[in-house]
Structures are given as C-alpha cells and as structure tokens.
Design goal:
158 residues; alpha+beta; 5-stranded mixed sheet; two-stranded antiparallel sheet; 9 strands; globular
Length: 158
C-alpha cells in the first residue's frame, strides 16, 4: 500500500510471493486493481457539466434519463469485475493519448490530480451506443467525467 498526502492508504493491488529459483527474498506480482472487487460508487468531482459534447445535456428526453438511472442502479448490485466480464456493458480502459477523446476530456489529462489515473468507459443504456466515461480515483470511486453519446471515443469501427 502506498501512503497518500492525507495519511490515507491506497491499495495498488500488489502482492508479495516467493520467487522460483532466485536469490531474491520477494518479488512483486501485479494483481487486478482493487476497484474490481468493489461495487460501483459514483462521484462527479470532474464531471464536465458545461460541455456541449459530453455532458448529460446531450440526453434529449426524460425516458433516456430514466433508462440511465435504472441501468446505474442495476450496475450497483454487481462488482466492477462482473461488469467488465459481462460483454453487454462493453467496459474497459481507454487510453488518454490514443483514443479520439472529446477536446474537453483531453484537457483533463493535464490535471495534476488525475493525469496518471486511467480512463474507463462502460455502456449504460440498453439500445443506444452511448458510454459513460470516467476514471477510478485513489479511493477506488468511479469519477464520472461525461457521456460519449455517439460512442466515438472507442468505437467498434477502429
């Protein structure tokens, strides 16, 4: 565990094991990130509420909001690992540098607090291709950044 500025600890998901046929006392084996064992908790500290391209302003009807929150409620009963393994959610990391991110999101990669945290996306609608974009903060809480309404960030056509 690594110590943070405010004396809290963050589980980076590393474990110690004895190496085979080596003189070393321990080696580090990277395990799955700690957030994958947890159920979703959402925060909106970095949410781009004024963005014309990736805020929830792009949702144009009440029915879509209903579907979104119903889906988020359902996701809250699963762990992130279960969400990732279920192909219907299309949940995976997104690279800050290589993907066609909206310009508002690209600007966030220069934010000192979050620049080293990986972006992540998942599908939160049944019919539509829209994705929720965000990242996991150091407390393993999913920080919603915005909505990729037309699924341009990491589309199937690439």
């Amino acid at each position: 565990m690594a110590k943070r500025k405010n004396n809290q600890y963050f589980d980076f998901g590393t474990i110690k094991t004895k190496p085979k046929n080596q003189n070393l006392k321990y080696k580090f084996v990277k395990s799955k990130p700690a957030y994958r064992r947890k159920r979703p908790i959402f925060a909106f500290n970095y949410y781009l509420c004024d963005s014309k391209k990736c805020s929830f302003k792009t949702i144009q009807n009440t029915r879509s909001f209903y579907v979104l929150f119903k889906k988020l409620k359902g996701l809250s009963s699963l762990t992130w690992q279960e969400i990732i393994e279920n192909k219907s959610y299309h949940a995976h990391d997104v690279n800050w540098n290589e993907e066609e991110l909206p310009s508002d999101i690209k600007k966030l990669k220069y934010n000192k607090e979050i620049k080293d945290l990986p972006l992540f996306q998942f599908k939160a609608f049944d019919i539509e291709e829209a994705r929720i974009l965000g990242l996991f903060n150091l407390d393993n809480i999913f920080e919603v950044i915005g909505l990729d309404r037309k699924h341009k960030t990491y589309s199937k056509n690439k």
